[in-house]
Amino acid sequence: DLDTNLGKLDEDIRQERDAYLKAAKEVTRRRETATRKLARAVTSEMQELGMPGGNFDVALVPLAEGEASAYGNERIEFLVSANSGQPAKPLNKVASGGELSRISLALQVVIAGLGSVPTMIFDEVDVGIGGRVAEIVGQKLRALGKSHQVLCITHLAQVAAQGERHLAVSKRVEGKITLAEVRPLAERERTLEIARMIGGVEISKQTLAHAKDMLSRASA
């Protein structure tokens, strides 16, 4: 019954392909709606994170004819324009390290209630920013920390002050080996470290008072 079996298999394949295409078209329809909402929300967050005029978009790139994927009929590509008037290009080709961190932060803030990743690590999220924008970045990281564990490496007091826990990272040499040490900071050590970030090596009474004020306002 070779011919009969082959005919039945061909019919089974056709039915499965039709079912796949129907499901994939529905995924595409929902993606078109979701990507517009996501692009607007992330673009809005970018304006507050030191990227005024920046734009975020999501492209649905169709697969080649005859190609199939477990994820539907298209691949997803994030596009970004860091400055007003510039065309949007693939995220990994136009964004700097600091911009990538901030766009990642904007994405995580927007989808905070949807993801299942328990821990997020942000490195150089404060590159190229300061003042008010740095404080906003810190506030958003702190808010994200309500639903996730957030680890942030930072060199700005405005960002660091928003942390609920602080760890100091240092290096030391023993013989011919360089060791990295991470230790948690007690309350007074936290204040001194924030003051050092503000004022440098010499810590004045005014700098110390400023550090205490920043930590107090962050936890209010």
Can you walk me through this structure?
With 220 residues, the chain is an alpha+beta fold. The protein is 50% helix and 20% strand. The strands form three sheets. A three-stranded antiparallel β-sheet has the order 1-2-3. A two-stranded parallel ribbon has the order 4-5. The chain has a two-stranded antiparallel sheet with strand order 6-7. A hairpin with a 7-residue loop joins strand 2 (74-81) and strand 3 (89-90). It is elongated, with a radius of gyration of 25 Å. The termini are far apart.
In short:
With 220 residues, this protein is of the alpha+beta class. It has helices at 2-48, 91-94, 97-110, 131-144, 157-160, 187-199, 205-219; strands spanning 55-62, 74-81, 89-90, 119-123, 149-153, 167-174, 177-184. It has 7 helices and 7 strands; from the N terminus they run αβββααβαβαββαα.
